């Protein structure tokens, strides 16, 4: 049990580190990019990228994550041949679906463009959006193939290839985006639309970099994989049809759950501009706010969520292994530790981001009261994104993926039903409130199903969460106090440099306060001390 927990944590921390690096890089490049193309260019980028995200999930059809689960299942039975058969067949399927997705997105671009613009041209025209959608569609030719290779390695509980390829993909993409945008806008004094189109094309260039890393890992690991095949028990007597039938039974829920955040954002794509304009907002103002809600602020908010993403990737094969072997005690232990570590790391990030919302937005993007207000409201939603990602992964790991799908539709129906109404009542904040409502209901349902089908009790998790909430409250009060004291000397409202100073001091004070409380209470030792030696202390009294 200890070895399995250690493997869960080791794999999770590897992916967490890589995902955090990717998220941070994905956030940092936004600042110079927004400076180069402006709010309107950022909105244009968001219009194109949202369509690509939806089509990417459809093109992969959940198969990469399903392959991870499939390979893990048959590896636990000692049948390595069946997992290899699935991998090779899946590569062909992913290549074909990627090509199909690329073709369809190109054909649909002129139809989707006027819809996301709210029915009529603003500063961005239908032709602009069509062009950007077509440029980003090239990534569909590569990403599905890359994704299935990651799924195969994860099925072997090897997270290194995924981690390294993620970081390389992001670095290559960002270097291309910023260099291409700078050359077009500053050197050539070219069109903003052309620069944004090249920026979205960066997804294709980055994917090539990530794919190259995975191919290198494949050749490096091939002798080991061949050795496993040589020791494998005889493969199960499955036809190709039966094999894909089982795979697709996993894949459907994966694609739907993976689409949760993109689908919620797509509801905003279809309704935000239209509703804002109908309620008297100028088209250009609406596009600027749309850029805040769908592009700038989510880049910051999704950094804490990347922890849950890493957990989800690690959970599926690990939970599947425990469930298949019938070790429910280990299964419940893995669920418990995962939930608690998620709160330990995500909650303070969310609270700190919300409290420091105004200086954060001013320091990283531009001086904007609207941007700070949107970030303050959006930050708490990160905890909902995180728990939905993790709880859905747990349900998939215990073969109850249908409940994850039900939860998705429950939340999405609420988002669709209330989005325009809430935007009418609360302005741009309304879309955030509708998202929070949908995710809250979805998570509540997932938690109920986990308790019912895994026999999991939330009592210890609730106690620990209350303790961490107290620590986060103390942290927030310390940040507010230091912010108030600094206001006599320097105010974040006075400029970007002042905002940077307030932000750095606030983050430093908040981090020290939270970590000190978590350390003194032995919470860090109990949850992650076995991975970090200096946290382990011999004390009789433990956190309860």
TrEMBL record:
The subcellular localization recorded is: Cell membrane
- Top-level taxonomic group: Bacteria
**Cellular-component GO terms for this entry:** plasma membrane
Q: Which InterPro entries match?
A: PG_synth_SpoVB (IPR024923), Poly_Biosynth_Transport (IPR050833), Polysacc_synth (IPR002797)
Q: Where are the transmembrane segments?
A: 12-37, 49-71, 91-117, 129-149, 170-189, 195-219, 247-267, 300-320, 341-365, 377-396, 403-423, 429-448, 469-491, 497-517
What are the record keywords, sorted? Cell membrane, Membrane, Transmembrane, Transmembrane helix
Q: Which CDD domains match?
A: MATE_SpoVB_like (cd13124)
- Predominant place of localization: membrane
The record describes its membrane topology as: Multi-pass membrane protein
**PANTHER family according to UniProt:** LIPID II FLIPPASE MURJ, PST FAMILY PREDICTED COLANIC ACID TRANSPORTER
**Protein name, please?**
Polysaccharide biosynthesis protein
Provide the taxonomic classification.
Answer: Bacteria, Bacillati, Bacillota, Bacilli, Bacillales
């Amino acid at each position: 049990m200890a070895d399995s927990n250690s493997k869960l944590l080791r794999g999770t921390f590897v992916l967490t580190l890589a995902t955090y690096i990717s998220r941070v890089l994905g956030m940092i490049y936004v600042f110079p990019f927004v400076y180069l193309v402006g709010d309107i260019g950022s909105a244009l980028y968001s219009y194109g990228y949202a369509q690509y995200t939806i089509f990417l999930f459809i093109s992969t059809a959940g198969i990469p994550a399903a392959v991870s689960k499939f390979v893990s299942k048959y590896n636990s039975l000692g049948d390595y041949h069946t997992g290899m058969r699935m991998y090779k067949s899946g590569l062909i399927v992913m290549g074909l679906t990627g090509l199909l997705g690329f073709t369809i997105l190109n054909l649909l671009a002129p139809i989707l463009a006027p819809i996301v613009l709210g029915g009529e041209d603003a500063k961005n025209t239908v032709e602009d959006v069509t062009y950007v959608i077509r440029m980003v569609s090239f990534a569909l030719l590569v990403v599905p193939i890359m994704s299935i290779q990651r799924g195969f390695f994860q099925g072997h509980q090897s997270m290194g290839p995924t981690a390294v390829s993620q970081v390389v993909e992001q670095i290559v993409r960002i270097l291309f985006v910023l260099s291409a945008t700078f050359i077009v806008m500053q050197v050539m004094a070219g069109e903003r639309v052309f620069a944004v189109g090249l920026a979205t094309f960066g997804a294709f260039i980055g994917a090539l970099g990530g794919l190259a890393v995975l191919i290198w890992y494949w050749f490096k690991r091939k002798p080991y994989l061949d050795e496993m095949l040589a020791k494998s028990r005889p493969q199960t007597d499955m036809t190709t049809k039966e094999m894909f039938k089982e795979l697709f039974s996993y894949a459907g829920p994966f694609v739907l759950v993976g689409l949760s955040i993109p689908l919620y954002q797509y509801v905003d794509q279809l309704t935000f501009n239209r509703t804002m304009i109908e309620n008297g907002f100028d088209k250009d103002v609406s596009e600027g706010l749309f850029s805040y809600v769908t592009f700038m602020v989510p880049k910051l908010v999704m950094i804490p969520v990347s922890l849950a993403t890493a957990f989800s990737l690690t959970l599926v094969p690990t939970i599947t292994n425990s469930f298949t072997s019938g070790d429910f005690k280990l299964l419940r232990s893995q669920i418990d530790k995962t939930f608690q570590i998620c709160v330990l790391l995500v909650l303070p990030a969310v609270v700190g981001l919300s409290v420091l919302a105004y200086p954060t937005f001013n320091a990283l993007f531009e001086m904007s009261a609207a941007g700070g207000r949107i970030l303050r409201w959006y930050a708490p939603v990160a905890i909902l994104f995180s728990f939905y990602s993790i709880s859905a992964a747990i349900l998939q790991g215990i073969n109850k993926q249908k409940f994850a799908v039900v939860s998705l539709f429950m939340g999405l129906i609420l988002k669709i039903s209330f989005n325009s109404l809430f935007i009418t009542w609360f302005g741009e904040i309304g879309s955030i409130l509708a998202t929070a409502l949908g995710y809250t209901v979805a998570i509540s349902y997932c938690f109920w199903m986990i308790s019912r089908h895994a026999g999991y009790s939330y009592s210890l998790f609730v106690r620990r969460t209350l303790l961490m909430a107290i620590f986060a409250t103390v942290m927030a009060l310390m940040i507010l106090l230091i912010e108030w004291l600094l206001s006599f000397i320097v105010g974040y409202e006075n400029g970007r440099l002042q905002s940077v100073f307030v932000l750095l001091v606030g983050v430093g004070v908040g981090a020290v306060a939270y970590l000190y409380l978590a350390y003194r209470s032995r919470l860090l030792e109990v949850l992650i001390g076995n991975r970090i030696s200096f946290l382990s202390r011999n004390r009789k009294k433990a956190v309860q």
